[in-house]
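Exercise 7b. Backbone tokens:
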């Protein structure tokens, strides 16, 4: 009886155990299936990520072995990583051996502290570029590395930086003042030329409202020009009056343009400033000097002309125009050799070439009057050169020597006449004693 009961109990427990075992096995199979599905999903996600992923295992001999790479790593580097799995990092990626990267990965495994580098450069015969790298400990003795290709980003960054430095050098070295204000009309750029022009240093005024350094008499015009620029319309070569820090008035030439931000909205105004004060003073002094020179040339009793480097007449005073029989406007622009008689042109051309090398010449030439007759003249010439020593043209002083030439000819004729009328002296040993009379010249009384 008791044995029958125990048999029934054992059979029941066996059936129950079988049911529990079957249920557990079913749950385990479902869990394993779910786990495999989860791993598959994770693998798909990791392979679909735009980030390359590696895992390295640190061996007892301190070697870092590549144990896994996702599909994105293949796409980013253009490599088949299955050929690299199981290789030490220095063998898989030889160019990394000379960098800090392998040791950084080992430190991550040993300390558990992650490591990030925004710019890791890699180059070998298979692949290369600039990469952003993030490494973290995955589990003991393993490190996971996520990376992305940032070559394009850094090239743009380097180009922008080079562009910035180049523009900054131009702005700093510019002889023209360059200034800029932001939306609030506060100064955000003030180059060294502005410091020289206005007497305010950049450290003193950057960040301050522009109106604070401007005289009140200039506020209205300045506001009007700023408003135009903020409305998208700059000005060009506008002459304005401003004031230095010490109160000195300035004459300036101003050009402006709006500054745009990344959204295409106007974020400020830039101005190009040329100081006309010194130039205007120099021009005024030059005009006064030129006026005095022209007055001297016009009142001179001699002819004066100037040519350009090619020999074209650029100036002729009234005295020379009268001598040649032309109106001055008729002579301007014509080559100077047109006013030289044919027999003198070769000498005149040679003298002009000598003036080009800095020589001075003084020579007699024959000039042509408008009516065709020749005029004997004495020409004194010199070259005109700029500060670099480049020949700009010639300056000539022309003296009419017609009257001196006629007087010389008259004197020669008179001398010849006197010579003919004077008797020849008696032959040696003949003639009178000490009382002999002196020869007489017709019309000339003796003592």
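Sequence design result:
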């Amino acid at each position: 009886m008791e044995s029958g009961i125990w048999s029934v109990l054992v059979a029941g427990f066996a059936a129950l155990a079988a049911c529990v075992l079957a249920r557990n096995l079913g749950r385990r199979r479902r869990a394993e299936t779910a786990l495999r599905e989860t791993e598959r999903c994770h693998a798909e996600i990791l392979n679909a990520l735009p980030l390359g992923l590696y895992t390295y295992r640190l061996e007892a001999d301190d070697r870092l072995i590549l144990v896994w790479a996702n599909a994105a790593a293949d796409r980013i580097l253009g490599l088949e990583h299955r050929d690299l799995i199981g290789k030490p990092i220095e063998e898989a990626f030889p160019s990394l051996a000379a960098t800090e990267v392998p040791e950084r990965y080992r430190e991550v495994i040993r300390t558990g502290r992650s490591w990030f580098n925004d710019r890791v450069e890699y180059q070998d015969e298979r692949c290369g570029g600039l990469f952003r790298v993030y490494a973290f400990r995955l589990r003991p003795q393993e490190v996971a590395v996520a990376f992305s290709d940032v070559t394009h980003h850094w090239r743009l960054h380097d180009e922008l930086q080079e562009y910035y430095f180049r523009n900054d050098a131009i702005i700093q070295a510019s002889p023209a003042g360059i200034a800029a204000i932001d939306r609030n009309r506060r100064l955000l750029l003030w180059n060294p030329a502005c410091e020289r022009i206005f007497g305010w240093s950049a450290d003193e005024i950057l960040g301050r409202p522009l109106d604070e350094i401007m005289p009140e008499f200039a506020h209205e015009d300045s506001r009007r020009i700023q408003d135009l620029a903020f409305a998208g319309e700059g000005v060009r070569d506008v002459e304005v009056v401003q004031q230095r820090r010490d109160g000195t008035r300035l004459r300036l030439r101003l050009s402006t343009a709006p500054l745009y931000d990344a959204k295409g909205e106007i974020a400020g105004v830039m101005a190009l400033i040329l100081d006309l004060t010194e130039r205007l003073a120099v021009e005024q002094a030059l005009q006064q000097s030129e006026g005095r020179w022209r007055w001297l040339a016009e009142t001179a009793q001699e002819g004066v002309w100037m040519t350009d480097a090619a020999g074209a007449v650029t100036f002729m005073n009234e005295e020379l125009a009268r001598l040649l029989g032309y109106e001055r406007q008729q002579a301007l622009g014509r080559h100077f050799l047109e006013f030289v008689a044919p027999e003198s042109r070769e000498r005149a051309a040679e003298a002009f070439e000598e003036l080009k090398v800095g020589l001075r010449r003084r020579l007699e030439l024959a000039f042509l009057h408008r009516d065709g007759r020749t005029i004997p003249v004495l020409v004194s010439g010199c070259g005109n050169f700029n500060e670099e020593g480049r020949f700009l043209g010639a300056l000539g002083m022309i003296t009419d020597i017609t009257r001196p030439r006629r007087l010389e000819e008259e004197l020669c004729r008179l001398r010849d006449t006197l010579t003919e009328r004077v008797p020849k002296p008696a032959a040696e040993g003949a003639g009178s004693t000490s009382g002999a009379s002196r020869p007489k010249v017709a019309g000339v009384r003796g003592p």
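Instructor comment: The mean pLDDT is 82. DSSP finds 13 helices and 15 strands in the chain.
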